[in-house]
Amino acid sequence: MKRLLSCSFARRLFKPRTQYTIHSQESKESMEKSPMTTSNNNFDSQSSNENGKEIGSAAATNIVLNHEFSDGLNSWQPNCCDAFVVPASSGYHKGLTTEEGCCYAVVTNRKECWQGLEQDITSGVSAGSTYTVSACVGASGTFQGSVDVLATLKLVYQNSETNYLFIAKKSASKECWEILEGSFSLSTMPDQVIFYLEGPRAGADLLIKSVMITCPSSTACDSSGTASVSTDDDNIIVNPQFDDGLNSWSGRGCKVVSHDSMADGKITPMSGKYFASATERTQTWNGIQQDITGRVKRKLAYEVTAVVRIYGNNVTSADLRGTLYVKAADNRERYIGIASVQATDKDWVKLQGKFLINDSPSQVVVFLEGPPPGTDILLNNCVIKHASKAPPPSPPVIEDAAFGVNIITNTSLNDGTNGWFPLGNCTMSVQTGSPHIMPPMARDSLGAHEPLSGRYILVTNRTQNWMGPAQMITDKVKLYLTYQVSAWVKIGQASGPQSVNVALGVDSQWVNGGQVEISDDRWHEIGGSFRIEKQAAKVMVYIQGPAAGVNLMVAGLQIFPVDRRARFRHLKRQTAKIHKRDVMLKFSGSDSGSLHGTFIRVRQLQNSFPFGSAISRTNMDNEDFNAFFVKNFNWAVFGNELKWYWTEAQQGNFNYKDADELLDFCTKNNIQVRGHCIFWEVVGTVQAWVQSLNKNDLMTAVQNRLTGLLTRYKGKFEHYDVNNEMMHGSFYQDRLGKEIRVNMFKTAHQLDPSPILFVNDYHVEDGSDTRSSPEKYIEHILDLQEHGAPVGGIGIQGHIDSPVGPIVCSALDKLGILGLPIWFTEVDVSSDNEYVRADDLEVMLREAYAHPAVEGIMLWGFWELFMSRPNAHLVNAEGDINEAGKRYLALKHEWLSHSHGHIDEQGQFSFSGFHGSYEVEVITVSKKISKKFVVDKGDGALLISIDL
């Protein structure tokens, strides 16, 4: 059995590399096409530096006994094959020259690829240290060309499955000796560590001249067998400025070269004396790398700073990324995006980011990638160290907020166009005939308000779509305040629908303040919001959008800061009406007659409303993450692990292991799960192999995807997002026709009738995207239903900036007319200030929970470095709950009901409580009795009989 494991392990090493964590589509596709190792540089090996010094040749002690076979096979064992030692002078293998007096081992009669030579090195290694391996190997036999030789560790744990750790691979031939090099580190110490060389095909002889395993750093290993602990200031990168040539650096599918200058002296280091280039790159993922195995610790956040630039191939600017390759102990591989920067060929720039590893991997490699093939990546310096903790945050100080006060000058146009100016060479005039009432979303925020003047700005002679009325508001906008935008807009005669946008120019940045699509000659409400968190030199608001030549009309523009607390009071009352119920406990039993006046305590154990979060397989390796998740959420959705590009990244090569393990975790913890997603309509998310199929083959692949997923997990997912983001993509519809969307729903329901089938899209609730406005979303859903699609739920993702309650509520009200359950499926809010982020999150949670059509809320993650948006987390990377997390927990606590008092003369006790599970304690002089009960949804008061 153990030999079969070894052979299957070896086979796994040669399969094409699968990308399990997608950090960019371009990188994903290139990785699917590339082998795990390359001819230029072994992906897992350490390379020699430019001066020819072999890694492992330092004065460190070799832990391999009899490393040159001078004592025959002493300390070595053949692995289910035969082996013997041959002196160099024997001429046994004429093609291989060997120094006089040397010996080498011949491993023969090999029937399997995993058979080779092994040695127990348990006593020579310790956890936390990094060891380098250098072996001189060759091959002999009837084969043509070359064969692969592998260095492997067998890790034996008592009462646990044996693991195999790949170290390095080298192609060997019959003509010359080859140096196989690599490194390894053990995060925990097994009961037994066995090193062995294996790999050539059955029948080929494996030749071994010498083996060196050393721990070259004197500070990394000590006689006690324990690793030294780095301080927070320690850089875990070895040779960070290339003072020791290319020592510890290698090319990832390319070559690396060290320089003191390039381009006839035009390129010199920003700091230090040297820099390195990754050259002869043929794939975007090629770059410079360093193995940092054993130098990173699980559950610690690390910050990365690298000084980089690009050179050559007529590319002047390119996205350059820092990426982490992580191989788990079970050989599962993943790629973690650390950071990206727009690098140029003109100057050095800083690439900065953070990462955290949850498990104890067998290998960790940091590398640079991204620019087009043929473009060199230059690296001057690299620092990776334990991230320092940020100082405690402070809430923003905002004086004289003036909630509800319009900051626009001359909104009523009583003074003509004073305060306004035309953006571009268009013409402005004041006309009459616009609505006198405030737009509904503004009215919901402002309450009673004076009627509008009925005057509007008419903009004519527009020769560009960005032309329109504008106003400077630089001195009126305050940092960290959330502003609501509201106006009436109308267009002149046009051919086809026209988009109208309230935009802000914040210095050189465009900010969306709201958007609406108009296809008739009526006045339309436009609403949105914005917030500025960094001081700007110039802030301009302008209205734009219709095509050139189309007249634009604007009336009653309002921009005012929102008093969120005032709306919260309304939402609390609304929440109580929807989610609380009057309850009467009726006590009975042998002692019921004497219960009058007895003290009781009622405590809610859990609110039954679905509050969930996205999780990923790697999160499950962090026990702190698991504890927070299980305690504070009752639903889950998988971030990537159920998506088609994850389960079948390469055609016919299925990976359901990650989803299976996540589903098992949720089942064990009584967590219900949404299925996200069966298909994703946006072309950039569709695997390259799927995009390459012709129509018939694509239809077959779609059917196979449905059948494979829905039958495998029949009855296990409560929901499915059937075809994600149909308002923003049309890959399957374009290739297979409009009916494919309906067929996806129909087929999914036939294969598994139990889950609710959802549509799911973004920017539905914030007024910022005309493609997915509530009105268009409603048309889309009705069209699917009319053609027979069993749409059972509406998904609103909730990736939102500066949310305003009435705008969110307006979208929910409109969608609510369909009578379908609405779920916020991917909520996240982002601000660099934790207090502002907490306020945004509270707006979203309160609005959703207070709306009668919303039946569940899912966050799109909560743990730092494991979310798709920056500055959106509730828990910092190392487990500290930030202000946003504290606000979430406070709301969860607010939505639990507790009560106490005394049983009345009729043996009853009444209270009002949120739906969910409860425990009641009846406390008498002699005893305390506990009973549990459930408060379900219902219109009338609930009577619960409790038998004591």
Automatic annotation (TrEMBL):
GO terms for biological process: xylan catabolic process. Residues 589-891 form the GH10 domain. GO terms for molecular function: endo-1,4-beta-xylanase activity. Residues 20-52 are annotated as: Disordered. SUPFAM superfamilies: (Trans)glycosidases, Galactose-binding domain-like. Coiled coil: none annotated. Keywords: Carbohydrate metabolism, Hydrolase, Polysaccharide degradation, Repeat, Xylan degradation. This is GH10 domain-containing protein. SMART domains: Glyco_10. InterPro entries: CenC_carb-bd, Galactose-bd-like_sf, GH, GH10, GH10_dom. The lineage of its organism: Eukaryota, Viridiplantae, Streptophyta, Embryophyta, Tracheophyta. Belongs to the glycosyl hydrolase 10 (cellulase F) family.
